[in-house]
Design a protein that fits this description.
The relative contact order is 0.06. Strand 3 and strand 4 form a beta hairpin. The protein is an alpha+beta fold. Helix 1 packs antiparallel against helix 7. It is 51% helix and 19% strand. Among the domains are: 73 residues, Helix Hairpins (Orthogonal Bundle), CATH 1.10.287; 164 residues, Heat Shock Protein 90 (2-Layer Sandwich), CATH 3.30.565.10. GO terms for molecular function: ATP binding; phosphorelay sensor kinase activity. Pfam families: HAMP, HATPase_c, HisKA. It is an enzyme of class 2 (transferase).
């Protein structure tokens, strides 16, 4: 069902496409955020690592440096190592960052651990190496940043603001010293500042910056001078720029996928439209490729069948016109000739004979017209069938009785089916099939005609008419069902018929949903005509076919 419905395939393709695009968007955000998170960690560590490096560089001896590092490690609550630079493998990009006095941050996703590497001023042979859980790194750095900055500024009494301006390029956030009166703090916060306590202020914003942190740290022994650090934006996993970009990219990929799903159907519709335009111009030779089993394949198949049917109708109409013009001329010419003879005939008995002959010609002409109308009606696809349950033996018996009444001097043998064998058919047309087949067999047999019927093992009804005549060559067996085709080449009354009987049988078999075939009779040696059709056509027996 899924393969046979183009719309289900499109809907299913859309669902799969949406899932893939969602997965793509998720992976894309993860990759981008991995890069952003790395840059964010580096931006937080650049300034503080420089201050720590400066603090170490000021220590005059190695032991004092190690003691300072130990104190810093306790303050940070992180392991801090003083290593020779050859013990850490650095990439060129990392070496370049160290040369620019920036920190190198490495992230181990498996252990969720960040490693910080920083060069030491005036000590090119050693580096600082720190490690911390990624989720704790930001909090620990925020807590100790004011302590290390005030420690750094302690070496520049009275010049704190000037030195802080020199450090500002190394910080990605604002760092300055303000008077307590300049700050927009409430009473509680002011009291805590005067008590020499640090204050961390969080602020949520609906703008792209999101949540930010501002740190207020009073100067030791001078609490009215406050170090203001921030606002420092917290890492936002989905900023508006990233959300907008991912959404637009996903929509673009989704639109490409939808276009890819619709292109095959558009191409096939274009082929159908082109074929219809060719048909409109009178060219019926084009056929559409039938690929798959969906609605478009069904449309292409129906178009091909329609083209074949129209082309066959046109050819049939042309052949019918040619044949009718020839068939009508013969009886009309005989009638005209009889009328001329009648006008010149003086003997009464001869005149009666001539009138009788003219009447036969008129009857033949009437029969021909009836055959032509029946054939044309069946060929154009406009018959109205009233299907009903019919006793097959009754139809065969009636045709046998009618044929024997003609005193053809032929032996008609009926192998009648059981009386309870019933089939779905239209009585009038089924009688016409049996009548035409038997009449054709009587006309060309030597002595015997065998008629059988019933329902075969596949559930198909069948009628079989055999004769002991000369049979039909295999090369001509398809041609016998063409209109006005007579293999003996004769169109005289001696051969009988007009070449339409078997054509009518073929069309009735078609509209019954079956077929008619001809081969050699295994018992009589002549021709054997067999028509088969479904013994049960529809649940409702009365069906009108247009």
């Amino acid at each position: 069902m899924f393969k046979q419905s183009i719309f289900l395939r499109i809907y299913g393709g859309l669902v799969i496409l949406v899932v893939l695009v969602a997965l793509f968007g998720y992976l894309f955000v993860q990759i981008i955020n991995y890069k952003r998170a790395q840059e964010y960690r580096q931006s937080l560590t650049d300034g503080i690592s420089l201050v720590i490096s400066e603090g170490i560089a000021r220590q005059p001896s190695l032991q004092e440096k190690l003691d300072w590092i130990s104190d810093a490690s306790d303050l940070l609550e992180l392991p801090v190592y003083y290593l020779h630079k050859n013990k850490v493998d650095l990439t060129r990009a990392e070496q370049r960052r160290l040369e620019e006095e920036k920190a190198v941050v490495r992230y181990d996703a498996q252990n969720e651990t960040s490693y910080i590497v920083k060069s030491i001023k005036n000590d090119p042979e050693h580096i600082l190496y720190m490690s911390a859980k990624a989720k704790d790194l930001n909090e620990q750095l925020m807590r100790v940043i004011p302590i290390f900055i005030w420690d750094y500024l302690a070496y520049y009494p009275g010049q704190e603001k000037e030195e802080l301006e020199k450090l500002q390029p190394h910080f990605k956030y604002h760092v300055e010293i303000k008077n307590l009166s300049e700050l927009n703090l409430d009473t509680e916060q002011t009291s805590r500042i005067l008590l020499d306590h640090n204050i961390v202020s969080y602020r949520d914003s609906a703008s792209e910056s999101g949540t930010t942190i501002t740190i207020y740290s009073p100067k030791p022994q001078a609490p009215r001078e406050v170090l203001v650090i921030g606002p420092i934006p917290l890492f936002n996993w989905m900023p508006i720029e990233l959300a907008t970009g991912v959404t637009l990219l996903s929509l673009f990929v989704l639109s490409l996928g939808v276009y890819g799903l619709l292109v095959p159907m558009q191409r096939r519709l274009r082929e159908v439209n082109y074929a219809l335009n060719r048909m409109k111009s009178g060219d019926l030779s084009l056929r559409l490729p039938v690929n798959g089993a969906d609605e478009m394949a069904s449309l292409a198949s129906n178009y091909n069948s329609m083209s074949d049917h129209i082309q066959r109708l046109i050819e049939s109409q042309r052949e019918l016109m040619r044949a009718v013009s020839h068939e009508l001329r013969t009886p009309v010419a005989r009638i005209r000739f009889g009328m001329e003879m009648l006008a010149e005939e003086d003997n009464y008995q001869d005149r009666l004979n001539q009138v009788e002959q003219i009447d036969k010609d008129i009857e033949a002409l009437n029969n021909l017209i009836d055959e032509i109308m029946t054939y044309a009606k069946l060929e154009q696809g406009t018959p109205s069938f009233d299907f009903e349950r019919i006793s097959l033996v009754e139809v065969l018996d009636q045709v046998v009785s009618e044929t024997e009444a003609l005193k053809t001097q032929k032996e008609i043998i009926l192998n009648a089916p059981a009386a309870n064998v019933e089939v779905d058919a239209e009585y009038r047309y089924l009688h016409r099939v049996v009548q035409n087949l038997v009449g054709n067999a009587v006309r060309y047999c030597d002595d015997k005609v065998l008629i059988t019927g019933g329902i075969n093992e596949r559930g198909f009804a069948y009628i079989c008419v055999e004769d002991d005549g000369c049979g039909i060559p295999e090369a001509d067996r398809k041609r016998v069902f063409e209109a006005f085709a007579r293999l003996d080449g004769s169109r005289t009354r001696a051969s009988g018929g007009y070449g339409l009987g078997l054509s009518i049988v073929s069309r009735i078999a078609y509209w019954f949903g079956g077929k008619v075939e001809v081969d050699e009779s295994p018992s009589l040696g002549g021709a054997r005509f067999t028509m088969t059709w479904p013994s049960r056509r529809f649940k409702n027996r009365r069906v009108k076919t247009n």
